Amino acid sequence: MAARSRSKTGKAKRSLRRPARRGPILPPTSPEAQREALADCLSRERMEAFAAALRPQGEPADQPVKALHDAVREAYDVCESMMDELQLDPPLACKRGCIHCCYNQVAVTEPEALFLGLHLLGTRSPERLRDLADRARALADGLKGKSWREIGMIRHRLPCLFLEDGGCSVYPARPLACRGWNSVDETMCLRSNLSQDAMTPIENHPIMRQIADAIQSGLLRGASSLGLEAGYLLMARAMALLLSDDPEQGLIDGTADWLDGKPFFGRKTEW
């Protein structure tokens, strides 16, 4: 038997082992809570980035239109990068040529609408802009007075303004609502349109929608923090406002007015 060491008093020393230090016992975080935390962090990050781009060091940007364009482009790039990193199971059914979700009317923020307007200004002829203006006003007039729910229930009869030749004609500049929507079963999307029931379930990955919604929220909060007009707009109405009268000049003036803090999108119209 091994001898115990003894102290000067002759008593054997006892080896005291301290219990391992434990933190508080927390319940496991649910996937829903994790997504909500990610969305909150992402929204705050985009809000701060947008505000800093338009007011660097607290001063207005030297080239505000370019700053606006670059800030929204960066937000879209962040969205795409995050979605590319997702490992989705089951895989997405979304692919080129699938246009079921393009029968819809989406909500956009002012920064998204202006980014889209700048894209149109750089890619469309005056004639095509005038045609788009006429179609946008007609669609906005037809939707006047309808709630979001009422619009959603007839979405199968409302193709997007930019659905052309079997695809999205503004794909690089499409808003976040389009970037976040997804499906894992194309037949569900088709059934939703054919049934004329907007409540038909479509299986999807919530994380993609939450990423896009959070970034959209960040743009909205960023604009609001600068005292700029901020809210959710029906894209058809936003385009009708930007393209009213002289479409080219309307896009330029609308962007400048919004950046100056004027209530451009909230002004009253006949439609």
Report the total helices.
Answer: 10
Strand content: under 5%
Mean pLDDT: 89
Question: Helix-strand pattern, N to C?
Answer: HHEHHHEEHHHEHH
Task: Characterize the biggest β-sheet.
Answer: 2 strands, antiparallel
Derived from helix and strand composition plus strand pairing, the structural class reads: mainly alpha
Which strands sit side by side, in order, in the main sheet?
1-4
Helix content: 40-55%
β-strand number: 4
| Unreliable residue stretches | 1-23
Radius of gyration: 26 Å
Q: How far is it from the N-terminal to the C-terminal residue, by CA? A: 98 Å
* 3D shape: globular
Description:
It contains ten helices and four strands, in the order ααβαααββαααβαα. With 271 residues, the chain is mainly α. A two-stranded antiparallel sheet has the order 1-4. Strands 2-3 form a two-stranded antiparallel sheet. The longest helix has 24 residues, at 31-54. It is globular, with a radius of gyration of 26 Å. 31% of the residues are buried.
Topology diagram in text:
Layout: H1 31-54, H2 64-84, E1 107-109, H3 110-123, H4 126-143, H5 148-153, E2 163-164, E3 167-168, H6 176-180, H7 186-194, H8 206-225, E4 232-234, H9 235-242, H10 247-259
Antiparallel strand pairs: 1-4, 2-3
Helix pairs in contact: 1-2, 1-8, 2-3, 2-8, 3-9, 3-10, 4-9
